[in-house]
Automatic annotation (TrEMBL):
UniProtKB keywords: Signal
InterPro entries cross-referenced by the UniProt entry: Ionotropic_Glu_rcpt (IPR015683)
Organism: Castanea mollissima
Name of the protein: Glutamate receptor
Domain of life of the native organism: Eukaryota
Signal peptide coordinates: 1-26
Length: 87
């Protein structure tokens, strides 16, 4: 249950960070860090769902020139350490 709370928090933060990046329609790449516990089933499923969602979004919205570049890192079951490593 704790993993689901962390996943939900991550998705909310991701959506909030994307909403604040009002870019021009130039060919921009927005780098997004994704921190998941890849040793768990929830982390592996979340990673595949995020990648699928980004792929599907650009398949439907091919006219968008701003692209997301996802950098996935394993938290290794240490949420606080993983959050600090992002700075």
């Amino acid at each position: 249950m704790a993993n689901l709370k962390h996943l939900f928090s991550f998705i909310v933060l991701l959506l909030l960070s994307l909403g604040g990046n009002k870019q021009s329609m130039a060919d921009d790449v927005i780098r997004v860090g994704v921190v998941l516990d890849l040793n768990t089933t929830v982390g592996k499923v979340a990673e595949s769902y995020i990648l699928m969602a980004v792929y599907d979004f650009y398949a439907v919205n091919a006219n968008y020139r701003t692209r997301l570049s996802l950098f996935t890192r394993d938290s290794k079951d240490d949420v606080v350490g993983a959050a600090c490593a992002g700075n």
